[in-house]
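PROTOCOL LOG
Step 1. Enter all chains and additional molecules of the complex.
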Amino acid sequence: MEILTYPNQQLKQNCEPVEQFDESLRQFVSELEAFMRSQPGGIGIAAPQVGQMQRICIVDLTGMTRGKKKKPVPNQGRLILINPEITEWEGFELGREGCMSVPDYTGNVIRATQIAFSATDEWGERHEYESEGFEARAIQHEVDHLEGLLFLDRLVSRRTDLFQRKQR
Amino acid sequence: MMKEEEVTMGSARKQWYMVSLVGKDQSGIVARVTEVLYQAGGVLGESSMMRLGCNFSIMMMVEIAGGGEQLRQSIAPVTTELGLHLHVDAIEPGLHQHQVPELRVVVHGADRPGIVAQVTGVLAEAGFDIMDLDSQVGGSSLEPIYILLIEGVANSGVETIHQALEPLSASVEFRVEEIDTLIG
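Step 2. Run joint prediction.
Step 3. Record the structure below.
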């Protein structure tokens, strides 16, 4: 597998829903997950980032920490999200994002702080989820990929300081 | 980092320059200046324009052949007409080497002389490397307030920077926070 990088136009296209939940899907998901874990950061990936134009993404913030104090980031572990649909958005905050498909650039993006969403796992079972904070940001970032959206499409001014997250 | 300007005037070899312009703000400056640079064969790198008070300022990385003097001459007619001061320096481009900021410091308070010097002095001492600094004077002319936004990297964490700034807390409010960057 290889990461496609912008301006590759595949990254700007809508992905097709997955219809067959078979062994070849599970094989692809397994390879995508292994590939994600081999990348620096390695907390999320979407199928179109490797040229597979299907609504599949993976998020896993297990073991992720923030800051010098290495505070753990709340998360619900490995999420295989096939045909994901975000159904509720609440709150918003500014955060900095980058992307494996956009090397050497990071910028400010406003995302919902809490989301509700549903997705099917690699065995074809549909699940309902809720997420907040950094994990919710990661999920919104990856689901955007499935709709041909990059964080570049949501950039706000680097001087925007209106929506700080809570002071810690 | 400054570099010796190319002496081979008129040569086809390209060189990077920092073009700085300062003057009274008016509409259309960026469009006119960048058009003349484009027509002269210049390629823009990174740039930053800011309106400070009623003043226009911009810094632009420009790659162009022909040397700094030729670059200056090609844009001088427009900058003179617009009343802008023009400054050209040969530079190393250093593109594609962005650092990601780790900490943000936000300072505000009643305006008084020395805020920036004191805050940045403390930060420098604490090993904080400033990557982005933006300050504004807000409030009213009778009661001006000063707002300072700083982003950068530091070997030490939030608490260390917070403690370093603490002695200034009698005269300014400040906040130090981590910038978590999601790489998706």
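Step 4. Note key features.
Chain A has one domain: 9-156.
Residues 89 and 115 of chain A are 5 Å apart (CA to CA).
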